[in-house]
What we know:
single chain, 2 strands
Amino acid sequence: xxxxxxxxxxxxxxxxxxxxxxxxxxxxxxxxxxxxxxxxxxxxxxxxxxxxxxxxxxxxxxxxxxxxxxxxxxxxxxxxxxxxxxxxxxxxxxxxxxxxxxxxxxxxxxxxxxxxxxxxx
Length: 121
């Protein structure tokens, strides 16, 4: 199938597919006209890549799962390395959430303070 059809079937964009290919996560053949052509298994692979990305992993993280991207990633038993990567990513996300929560709380306090010291109209 061509890149546009794969993009439609997987709910992604041709640009993302080219990006996955550049990252070494997806392969294609070239037709005589130069178009990328993917086999049917690419659909499962792309869905798994997207599942891992949506779970908060990066493309670099996803590379460590390359060996299982053609199967059912969601139900496969995790490898020790896969668990370590997911735990590290979770720690990064939790630190970001904590930092954003702190910023939100400071902004909320500043707005409360500003509204109390505003002169009445």
